[in-house]
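Deliverable D5.2: sample structural annotation.
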Amino acid sequence: MKLMPWRRNDEMSAFRDEFDELFNRFFTDEPFSALVPTNGKRTFLPPMNLAETDKAFTVSVEVPGMTEKDVHVEVRDRELVITGERKWEEEKKGKEFRRVESHYGAFERRIELPTNAKLEPDTLVATCKKGVLEISIPKVEPTPVAKIPVKAG
């Protein structure tokens, strides 16, 4: 009987490693991590867009079924913090849900803002309309470059 050296089946090992990585990321990366209950509460992560113009930044967060009373916006240091909760409202009119794909629960989104964002509370404008929270953040006017003459010593 001849002994053969053990070799890893590269294709099968690569598949197993990829599958393990995918499974681990499912519970730790966005957007799936937002669906995993934390501290006994179901959470979700609403989609967000950040746009920039010459004069301002605009943050748009999709919050379907929510009103201005359900969301809160704060500025902490250079961070914009958006929190809220979409509550589950089950209709009891003889319906029994077989499948629920709607997202509900508490959420928190944090965005680190650039240094040229003007963060005084009276300059930020937040509106919630048709399931979209929109926050307008003006930019700080750039200070002009001041040339300083150099004198002979």
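Annotation notes: Residues 10-28 form the longest helix (19 residues). The two ends are 94 Å apart (CA to CA).
The annotation will be released with the project's public dataset once the embargo ends.
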